[in-house]
Write a structure and sequence with these properties.
Protein name: Distal flagellar hook-filament junction protein
GO molecular function: structural molecule activity
CATH architecture of the largest domain: Up-down Bundle
Number of strands: 15
Strand content: 15-25%
Number of domains: 2
CATH class of the largest domain: Mainly Alpha
Keywords: Cell projection, Cilium, Flagellum
CATH superfamily of the largest domain: f41 fragment of flagellin, N-terminal domain
Largest sheet: 6 strands, antiparallel
GO cellular component, one term: bacterial-type flagellum
Shape: elongated
CATH topology of the largest domain: f41 fragment of flagellin, N-terminal domain
Organism: Arcobacter venerupis
Number of helices: 8
Order of helices and strands: HHHEEEEEEHEEEEEEEEEHHHH
Distance between the termini: 12 Å
């Protein structure tokens, strides 16, 4: 009888273990309570769940990038509208019927337009400046006490993962959206540029004039550190402001662009309207009209540059939209696979629960009857 009791207790213990697993599966809808329950299945489940976590991280990152891209796109659209207004204002100044008071009003309007452009150029989302280049924590455009605006970001775009091991560039830099190519030269040709222009080569590296003599162009790397590569000599026309000339290397693929800041262009236009030069000296009516006419041409070139930058931004934004759709689809598939591998079959769990109930009932009935037998009856 003692042996029979031990057997029933052993069976009861097994039933309790099975009941615990059954209860766990019903409450969590997961097949495995411990990895040791099925090591092969557990290994597969770990691999799939790792994929799920990876794609969830990618999805979160791309969603954040998409939000920033949308704000950048909206800012570019606003910049284009503001610039269209600037072109319309300047066109009025080129007509003979515009009075001196009208010219003064146009000058004031352009000053307001410059301030609006400055605000949009420093657009930020969640503490990230969208037009700063690779370091989005710095304010890309700074203004000094004289109102001169300078781009202090870089020409390198940030890269964001769109798939495991695959990255794409996001956004546009201040070089793209608030500067336009005022001059271009290729290998062996002469590049003419102003002292305030920013010089970029075909690889996006910046070349800067050496002060104080300004007779050499020095290449700077992506971190803003001067390299040993130079172009010399640099000549200037001796005027104020000076126009410089550099002869490019005779290397295949060489292409240099002189980038003029739209803020500098607006400053020059305002000066022309106010009949002063860049240092505040008065100029003649003829000189003023010539500069205003030239500014109109340059404003249209700058507007074309803004449109190109906006198109580049749109193309990059579309890549991230497609990547988000792709990541979301893969995440859904891996979620389904994870459920198929590690999810409990609730119909089977319900059947097993009912079977356990019947087994418990039968076992406890047997234990009850056995405990009621006397030693004499058991021996008989």
């Amino acid at each position: 009888m003692i042996n029979q009791t031990d057997q029933m207790l052993y069976r009861l213990s097994n039933l309790n273990i099975q009941q615990q697993l059954n209860t766990y599966q019903m409450s969590t809808k997961e097949k495995l309570q411990e990895g040791s329950d099925d090591s092969t299945l557990y290994s597969r489940l770990i691999a799939v769940d790792e994929k799920v976590r990876t794609y969830e991280g990618l999805q979160t990152q791309i969603e954040r990038t998409t939000a920033q891209n949308n704000v950048a796109d909206s800012s570019m659209a606003s910049i284009k509208k503001i610039f269209e207004n600037a072109i319309q204002e300047l066109s009025k100044a080129n007509t003979a019927t515009t009075t001196a008071e009208g010219i003064a009003a146009i000058s004031a309007n352009l000053s307001g337009i410059k301030e609006n452009l400055y605000q949009f150029a420093n657009t930020q989302v969640e503490g990230q400046y969208v037009f700063a280049g690779s370091n989005s924590t710095i304010k890309p455009f700074e203004k000094d006490s004289n109102g001169k605006v300078t781009y202090v970001g870089n020409n390198q775009l940030r890269k964001v993962a769109v798939e495991e091991g695959s990255y794409r560039e996001k956004g546009v830099t201040g070089f793209d959206m608030m500067m336009y190519p005022s001059a271009t030269a290729y290998k062996g040709e002469n590049l003419n540029f102003n002292g305030s222009d920013r010089i970029l080569d075909q690889d996006g590296n910046e070349w800067k004039l050496n002060s104080p003599t300004n007779d050499t162009l020095t290449k700077f790397d992506s971190n803003g550190v001067a390299t040993t590569e130079t172009i010399t000599p640099i000549t200037n026309d001796g005027l104020t402001p000076a126009t410089y000339t550099a002869t490019l290397p005779s290397t295949d693929g060489t292409k240099f662009e002189a980038k003029t800041s739209i803020f500098d262009l607006i400053d020059n236009t305002i000066n022309a309207l106010n009949k002063v030069d860049s240092v505040g000296n008065p100029i003649s009516d003829e000189e003023s009209k010539a500069l205003i006419s030239k500014s109109g041409t340059e404003l249209n070139k700058a507007y074309d540059g803004i449109n190109i930058a906006h198109a580049q931004l749109g193309g990059r934004n579309k890549l991230f939209e497609n990547a988000l759709d792709n990541i979301s689809s893969k995440l859904t598939q891996y979620d389904i696979l994870s459920q198929n591998i590690g999810g409990a079959d609730m119909t089977k769990v319900a059947v097993e629960a009912k079977a356990l109930e019947l087994t418990y009932t039968a076992l406890y009935s047997t234990i009850n009857k056995t405990s009621q037998l006397s030693l004499v009856n058991f021996m008989n």
